Amino acid sequence: MTSTVPSPLVLDGIVIAAQIKSELAAEVAAARDRGYVPGLAVILVGEVPASQIYVRSKVKTCAELGIYSEMHTPDASATTEELLALVASLNAREEIDGILIQLPLPAHVDTARLLEAIDPAKDVDGFHPINAGRLLNGTPMEKILAPCTPAGIMEVLRRSKIPVRGQRAVVIGRSNIVGKPIAVMLVNASATVTVCHSQTRGLAEITREADIVVAAIGRAGFVTAEMVRPGATIIDVGINRITTAEELEQFFPGDAARHAGFAKRGSTLVGDVDPAAFALAGAYTPVPGGVGALTIAMLMSNTVKAARLRRG
Ligand code: NDP
User: Ligand 1 centroid to 120 CA: how many Å?
Assistant: First the structure.
């Protein structure tokens, strides 16, 4: 008798993001009927090319969904005091529901002070200590502005009907923007969560126990097939650009589409999980087209939510 191993389910972030955006467009239209338009202000300091691309894409998505947006582009030499004054002026404006400061900021700017100056009710990145505290307190997600990437992961799990309650989840990475908040969200959703980081001993033994692995490390292909229990759900948050033929061959042997893309652009993206590990998974988020695709959709969701919550 032969047994067949089912193919892993691909958790398609592009499809899920499109669903979320279509729901948001309907909610924005309904808000307009009630007499208000959700509004987002984006602050981009200086001219960092990658940040300019991210910000353009955020502004474009606002336009697609009918959300009002405006951009503020202070010079790279702007002082912390000048930026604090800009944030204060945006805090005071009724029609602005969300304020997003594109990171990283120039080294001379006090980033923490600036992020804490944003009105927590307008903190659509969810980085303000008040919002981080509400998440830690277990306030329901629909009532808080939570960080976009981890909130996007929870949406992927929920919409793909991946069970979380009672499951063993292992998060690799403990950053304030991904690792810690996703660990808290999983605990709040009644998973049993272990958080690992660079000082963790016996990492592979821990990850092999997991029903859900979240990899947020920033190292190409770090999680290998030996580290994953067959059938586990793998959430790959990492975005790493590889540029050498050796890495291409290591991660994508025999993958004609990847090789063709690499030949054209001279690089390709790989997550924090070795694609060979995906073959063992029950379900996984690909890179690109997985978690990364959700982040802007969740920013839009936070903007619409902030507009709704601010109006009671
Ligand atoms: P950080 O660099 O802030 O954090 C990385 C974490 O990985 C740290 O906690 C670090 O541990 C841990 N780590 C590093 N090396 C090891 C190791 N050998 N073993 C175990 N843990 C290790 O990264 P971010 O959280 O900001 O981002 C992680 C990845 O996710 C990056 O690839 C980034 O590009 C991507 N990302 C993707 C987003 C998206 O939209 N899809 C959004 C945000 C990030 P320690 O704390 O001990 O140093």
Answer: 25
